[in-house]
Structures are given as C-alpha cells and as structure tokens.
Design brief:
This protein is α/β, with parallel strands linked by helices and 356 residues long. It has one domain (3-353): TIM Barrel (Alpha-Beta Barrel), CATH 3.20.20. The chain has 15 helices and eleven strands. Strand 7, helix 11 (261-274) and strand 8 (280-281) form a beta-alpha-beta unit. The mean pLDDT is 95. The chain binds iron/sulfur cluster. The site of iron/sulfur cluster (SF4) has 11 residues, from loops.
C-alpha cells in the first residue's frame, strides 16, 4: 500500500471520520486499488456481500427548460424540433405496474404551472398506488418557488399529499460557487439545494444526493461537496444514497474526453470512505457503463440503481449504455461480481434476496 494511505487505513479500521486532506489524498494516490480495498472493507462492514437494486422507470415529462446549463445536452427551448412535452397518457404509458419506483425529473418549463406537476404525481399515484414516486430535484422545487411563488414547504406538502414518497438527488451538480458560476448560472445554488433537502427531511421525505464529476471541478471541490453533504446528513439523517454522476461529454465538450473507469472507481471509493453516514453509495451504470458498474461493487458501491426503462438525460449526451436493463441482466451483473443481488423498493426495504 502507498505509505501515505496508512494513516487513512488506520482511521478506517478505527471507524474515525476522514478529513478534507484525507479525501484529496484518496484521489491523488496512484495506488487506487488500495483505495478500493479500503472502500470495500467499509461497504462489507455495512452490508456484507449484499448489493441492492430496484425495478424502476425513469420519466422525464418535458425537456423544455428556461435555463442553459453548459453541461446539459437534454434541455431544449420551446419550438426546437427536438423539444417535447408528454401528455398525461404518455406519462402513464411510461409507468409499469410491475415496477417499485418511478423517478421523475425534467426541464424548468416556462409555462407548466405548479398544478401540472401536482397533477402528474396525483394521476400516477391514483393509477398505480403501489408504485413509489420519487420526484423533482431541489432545483425544480426551487424553480416552482421562483416561477410560481409556491414555497418549498408548500410545494413539498402538496406533492406529498398527491403521492410523492421521496426526492432524487440531482440539481446541485457540484457545490463549489466557482463551478456554479461557470456551468449552471441561474440554477439553485448549494445553500438553496441544502435548505430544500433539509425541509424535505424534516417533513419525512427521504432523498438522495448526487455529484456531477469529470468536467472542470477539482479533486478538492469533489471532497468539499462530499463533506458538506456529510454535515447535512449529520443534522437530518434523511439521505438514503449518494450517487456520483459522470459528466457525459456529448455535444457540450467541457473537456475533451469522458472520465476514465479508474476515475469513476476512485470517485465511488472516496465517496464510500468520506460519506461515513450515508447508507448507500450508488453505482449509476447508465453513465459509467455496465462493466465499470460491476467492478465498482468491489470499490464501495452497494447499489446498482435499477432497470431504468427509457432514460433520456444521459442518452441525450450520447451515453453508450443501453437505455434500460432487464431485471435478469442486473442480477447477472451483481452475481458476476460475486455479490448477492437484493431487490429493494425506493426506500431500501428488501423485496427479494436472490440467493443462488
Ligand atoms: S441541467 Fe436541468 S436546469 Fe440545467 S439546462 Fe438541463 S434541464 Fe435545464
């Protein structure tokens, strides 16, 4: 092992919290297999060989957005030939009654009133009461306030009443104000994102958190992002999973090439080691590919997300992964990594353990 990692390994064994400097060291060392072994140790201490996944569907009701984040290939303006708005019939057609979770995110639409979003949640819940609805990033909840003057407290209460069960983790991308100015001017910032998750957790709405990496951010900014999430989790305990999202170069070309598999694995492993109070670190196969996702199960990941259905956001940026996976394929990927597949619901309740 790289000798500079030994003090970190001693902290890991003693279950002591890692510092910002420790986190940066995990990224800078050339001994990334050792980082992976440490993260696997932590993951195994929490969950043994179990790896979770969910039968889910991603639903992106519209790609029309008033913002123009520079990393985004998904958003379109009204009138663009590729802009779309789903009808309620199309939305319902995306929900499969066999699935446990529907994950809903979309553009900041200029004209759809808040009631439209409320109606989407209510209608899905009415037709499929057993499907758990995970909907709208903190950035969208903030937009409902800015555009329609519906406060986060009110929008979350109304959405919860309509059937919302949890929230996805996107929208903040990277907490750094430097990156925010460069990539997502006009979108809700780190403070607002954190406040909205705080409000949601206080209302009993669990959520996830993400990090968009592999573009202009530094290692220090990645670790600062994780530490800020760790502090928020200390206060509320409301986060279920952390999901590193690999930037897709697509047509936006913020950097010449996609992050490497080693960079993906280091980010997952560092997250498992730094985020000591997060139940799960998710390996998002849509962005890193099935093979890297399978290897990541030895680098601290305890969750493979799910079957997804028709994913549009990463695929608008030319993600090479398939649009969705069958349950058998997810089970196979987990088994190939010598782990035990555990089907879960949106809140990580165990649905089925795939013992041989
Ligand atoms: S990332 Fe979200 S808010 Fe930004 S342009 Fe794309 S759809 Fe709009």
């Amino acid at each position: 092992m790289d000798r500079t990692l030994i003090p970190i390994w001693e902290k890991v064994l003693a279950e002591e919290r890692l510092s910002l400097e420790d986190g940066i060291r995990l990224f800078e060392t050339r001994d990334f297999p050792a980082v992976g072994r440490m993260a696997d140790h932590v993951k195994s201490r929490r969950d043994g060989d179990r790896v979770f996944f969910v039968l889910n569907r991603h639903l992106n009701p519209t790609n029309i957005c008033v913002l123009s984040c520079t990393f985004c290939d998904f958003a379109m303006k009204k009138g663009d030939p590729d802009a779309y708005e789903m009808s309620m019939e199309e939305i319902l057609g995306h929900v499969d009654p066999e699935t446990r979770e529907v994950h809903i995110v979309g553009g900041h639409h200029p004209d759809w009133p808040f009631e439209k979003y409320e109606e989407i949640v209510r209608t899905i819940h009415h037709h499929y009461p057993d499907v758990q609805i995970k909907a709208f990033t903190a950035a969208e909840i903030d937009y409902f306030h800015r555009r329609w003057k519906v406060t986060p407290e009110e929008s979350l209460a109304r959405l919860k009443e309509a059937g919302l069960r949890s929230m996805p983790g996107g929208g903040a991308e990277v907490f750094s104000s430097r990156v925010h100015k460069l990539l997502l001017p006009g979108k809700s910032d780190a403070n607002r994102w954190s406040d909205i998750h705080h409000i949601a957790h206080n209302m009993g709405i669990r959520s996830n958190a993400t990090l968009l990496y592999g573009h202009v951010e530094t290692y220090e900014e990645r670790v600062e992002h994780m530490i800020r999430l760790r502090e928020l989790q200390d206060e509320t305990g409301g986060f279920l999973a952390f999901i590193p999202l690999e930037y897709q170069v697509g047509d936006t070309h913020l950097v010449p090439r996609q992050a490497s598999a080693i960079e993906d694995l280091k980010t997952i492993a560092a997250a498992r080691l730094v985020l000591d109070n997060f139940p799960h670190i998710k390996s998002y196969w849509v962005m890193i590919g099935e093979e890297t996702a399978s290897v990541s199960l030895h680098f601290g990941a305890s969750d493979m997300d799910g079957t997804i259905g028709k994913e549009r956001i990463a695929h608008a940026a030319k993600a090479a992964s398939p649009a969705g996976l069958a349950r058998n394929r997810v089970v196979q990927l987990i088994r190939e990594a010598q782990k035990i597949p555990v089907e879960r619901d949106a809140l990580y309740n165990v649905v089925h353990v795939y013992e041989n």
